[in-house]
Design goal:
Mean pLDDT: 83
Structural class: alpha+beta
Number of domains: 4
Low-confidence stretches: 41-56
Shape: flat
Distance between the termini: 141 Å
Number of helices: 17
Largest sheet: 5 strands, antiparallel
Oligomer: single chain
């Protein structure tokens, strides 16, 4: 067997390993993600799992959805997580040394870290990079399915670094196409993606390496959009790649295989694992994770059943079925203003009566609302309704709710940030390969590091609203300490010597995420303070001189009078 056969067999093995997850994923997609792809469906005839390659059919799934609460709540929770972990209006991470024992960066180093970070955000949020779309889909997939995958692809349009180019492109990888495996530490290091590609795109991407069948379809205007199944496998490299492989020494091997013809159509490699994985709560010993929606699937299905029954009851109340006497064969016309001859007997009684069994429709509504309330609590939406539920809450009450948010979302947020840290590190590695930090040909670039940081490894330091919520107690502690010191200083002024105002400002800037550039450097502050001290000394000398002159002036009449008195007291000769 060749590499292509091995990869197809490995993909089948990974598909079998994740079969346990797929029924639950499929239910989540059907009831909460109408536009996501289907997962494998069990086939009794083949006794195996058969992938459904067609995209999600929202119209067909809509027939199962009688209450849209699950769809809306997933959107709301996804937006809330994005605003807590990666808000678009903020810089949600900084950069710093990877060595935990490294000294704190000086002002020059801090400014360089901030410059690199600003460029990262500028490139990442460029609409052409695709990050926002890929990230938002992945956050929703993480919230609903527990696992989401982003492909960070290095852009080779221009191998040199220029500030205007897009160094990387981002693409959301549907979980239905991604077959993952993790190493002994639980880190996902393998993804065998099985997906469909049109003949035209395959021929454009791989050229003459595709099979004759795909090439013939690509050259036929009527068949160029016909789809063929492709495998893209990325896994740790067991040995050096082939001579024709430009990345033969890279850590991860990359293979493209055409499934039907079972032959290799592409081979390469990656220096970093290119698939960024978000987990809500990774399961022990698995590459996949659970989600709050998966845990709430029973309530979601119950709500759909209740909504269906409620709609039936409402229809019966509005347009009930009817019962007629024997002998009435005419179909009654129930339209407004219609005439129904023969529907009254000789006694004036109606020969047709409504059959109403739904006596208390409001009870059904109350039961549904109770289920919706349980679902909102299961998806933590109640934590984001503080101001809407009670706009008169005090700052202390709001702070308590913020702490609760932090305690609940910190575990999931930390796992998402774990994936984001891998993404940031890959971005930095791409910049370095493109010469952003200097090279032998161009040692000085816009992002050349200071001499003190040459050869230093650095990475992300997260500063999102969720991180600030985690450190909110530090600010509260600083405030209370300063207040207490101020009170003690009323009878013991020297206690203020213990307070380091510069350090308080540094900590506050770090926690609140304010730009570093708003603060003067330590050298600038020392210079300003030295000038101020010199000016104060000069001012004191001037004040002392003026006081001495004034004292001398005021003392002159007294000295004259004293002199005259002394002269008058002397005996005449």
């Amino acid at each position: 067997m060749g590499i292509a056969d091995d990869l197809i067999a490995e993909q089948a093995e990974l598909a079998s390993a994740r079969a346990y997850w797929e029924p639950t994923w499929q239910e989540v997609v059907e009831y909460g993600l109408p536009f996501f792809q289907n997962f494998s469906i069990y086939n009794d005839q083949t006794r195996g799992y058969v992938r459904t390659m067609e995209p999600a059919q929202s119209r067909e799934r809509g027939r199962k959805i009688y209450d849209s609460s699950s769809v809306v709540l997933i959107d709301q929770l996804s937006a809330a997580i994005e605003s807590l972990v990666t808000p678009q209006a903020e810089k949600w991470h900084n950069l710093g040394p990877m060595d935990p024992f490294a000294p704190d960066p000086n002002d020059e180093e801090e400014e360089w870290y901030e410059a690199v970070r600003d460029y990262q955000f500028q490139a990442r949020y460029n609409p052409a990079s695709g990050f926002v779309t890929a990230h938002q889909k992945s956050i929703k997939g993480c919230v609903a399915l527990g696992t989401a995958v982003i492909f960070v692809e290095e852009f080779f349009g221009d191998r040199r670094f220029t500030a205007r180019q897009i160094p990387a492109r981002y693409q959301h990888m549907p979980l239905s196409e991604s077959y993952l495996a993790a190493d002994q530490y639980g880190e996902v290091d393998t993804n065998i993606r099985r997906y469909m590609m049109t003949a035209r795109n395959a021929a454009t991407r791989f050229g003459d390496k595709v099979s004759d069948k795909i090439m013939a379809a690509a050259n036929d205007d009527k068949r160029k959009h016909e789809k063929f199944e492709i495998i893209h496998a990325v896994r740790p490299r067991d040995e050096r790649g082939g001579i024709r492989n430009s990345n033969r020494d890279s850590q991860w091997a990359s293979y493209y295989v055409e499934c039907e013809s079972r032959h290799m159509i592409g081979e390469g490699g990656f220096h970093e694992f290119p698939f960024i994985v978000y987990h809500w709560a990774q399961t022990e010993g698995s590459a996949y994770g659970e989600s709050p929606v998966m845990r709430a699937i029973a309530d979601i299905k119950t709500l759909q059943a209740q909504a269906k029954t409620g709609l039936q009851a409402a229809q019966q109340m509005i347009k009930p079925p009817t019962a007629t006497m024997d002998g009435v064969t005419n179909r009654p016309n129930l339209n407004a203003g219609a005439n129904n001859p023969g529907m009254i007997d000789e006694s004036g009684r109606l020969r047709i009566q409504p059959i109403i069994t739904a006596r208390n429709f409001t009870f059904a509504e109350a039961v549904q609302e109770a289920t919706r309330r349980n679902l909102r609590e299961s998806l933590y939406i109640n934590l984001f309704q503080v101001l809407s539920d009670d706009p008169n809450k005090t700052a202390t009450e709001a702070l308590i709710r913020d702490r609760e948010k932090s305690e609940i979302f910190s575990p999931a947020g930390a796992r998402i940030q774990h994936g984001l840290s891998r993404m940031v590190e890959r971005e930095i590695a791409i910049y370095e390969r493109k010469g952003a930090f200097g090279s032998e040909e161009a040692p000085d670039t816009a992002l050349s590091p200071p001499e003190s940081l040459q050869g230093t490894e650095f990475g992300p330091v997260f500063s999102s609203p969720l991180d600030r919520l985690r450190r909110a107690n530090e600010l509260l502690g600083i405030e209370r300490t300063v207040q207490t010191a101020g009170a003690v200083a009323q009878f013991m002024p020297e206690v203020l010597d213990r307070i380091d105002g510069d350090e308080i400002v540094e900590i506050t800037q770090e926690i609140t995420g304010a730009p570093r550039k708003m603060l003067k450097t330590r050298a600038e502050v020392e210079e300003v303070r030295a000038q101020r001290e010199q000016q104060q000394q000069v001012q004191q000398l001037l004040v002392a001189s003026e006081s001495a002159a004034r004292a001398a002036k005021d003392a002159t009449p007294a000295l004259q009078a004293l002199n005259e008195a002394q002269q008058a007291a002397e005996p005449a000769e």
